Amino acid sequence: VCQLTFSPSLNPSSGRTKECLVNSKKIATGLGAIVAAFGLVLSSATTSVAAPVPEYKAKAGDECRKAGIVAKARGAEGTDLTCTLLTYGSYKDTLRWWYADLKPLKNLDWVVPANPGGYSQTSTAISESLKKEGLLQTYTSVFKPGAGGTVGLGFFQEIKNKPESVLITGLAMAGGIPSNKSPLKLENSTPIAKVMREYEALAVPANSKYRTVADFLNDWKSKPTLPIAGGNLGGADHQFIGLLAKAAGVDPKKMNYVVYSGGPEVIASVLSGATVIGASGSAEFQAQVAAGKLRVLAISSANRLAGVSARTLKSQGIDLVYGNWRGVMATADLSEADRLNMVKVFDAMRGTPTWRGYLTQYNWDDEWLAGKTFGTWLKTELPLVAGVIKDLGLGG
User: Fold this and answer.
1) Which residue from 23, 49, 97, 121 has the least number of CB within 10 angstroms?
2) What is residue 307's predicted lDDT score, i.e. its pLDDT?
3) Is the pTM of this model over 0.85?
4) Are 161 and 333 in contact (CB under 8 A)?
5) Is the pLDDT of residue 39 over 80?
6) How many CB atoms lie within 10 A of CB 84?
């Protein structure tokens, strides 16, 4: 303790005063360290003890309080969840709401109905999440691009007696089927899960004369045949550009939409100058933007996306919000037991840290529908998309 005695002869800058100030600083520093240490203890105690989720709010992967307790009808398709001490994945050695009869998958054989890009980005994220969480051993992929995804769909729907076969699908295929006047029906496969939604981005070379979306739209109105790169005919990119044309006062039937089978081809086209602007999922352009080669003029989400420096169309005066969903289908002949187990495996994956990490990394929205609920949603979604294709005159 430092006690100061004031005296007329005491020089305020004397050694005694300095010593007292030093001691005071030591005391303050010591108290600060104690307070900081105490704060860390409290913080550690707070973060290390998560509140268990009660039965009536349980979702697969949530923490629970006592092994063996059952959360009735809280799982996919009204199945039960059981409080389980897990032995694998990120939740190893913790009590979690889980499917008591869940069997991790041995293999997944993906059919990707396009060249490497958005579809395979999603299927790989799913597969890696399942593997890292102990829900899958191995996976393979075969790429079948062409005709708006219908080449891949046709190939997939010929597969028989292979319960490990799965198709990655989405809004692009939903539009590609009517655009190509294909007799194939997506609903003739087995719905497993809708896993996410990704928003569109408009990108130009970094040295492009277009600095804002308004710059491009003004030019587009006077020259509707400006070449624009995007994914398959009638797909998510094509639908988005058609709706953008309509919102901007450009006749969609006059636009020059150049079709490519994957995001990398769209990027190559824009960078080479073969097209003046490209449309794709927002995650597709991230690497080229970071490298300073591309610039995103706008994104199609309602609000700005973390990690994307571009503004939304809405904030730039264009009333358009449009996003591409993706989902997983299994073969039509999958047994009911295998179907329900696969649905449970995917639903268990949804809440894991690995999958949530991919959602954050790629700016995907967590739009999730499992099993029969996904199938019911498709019955409404597919006719709506076909209507968009017809209204915009995008059919082949």
Assistant:
1) 49
2) 78
3) no
4) yes
5) no
6) 19
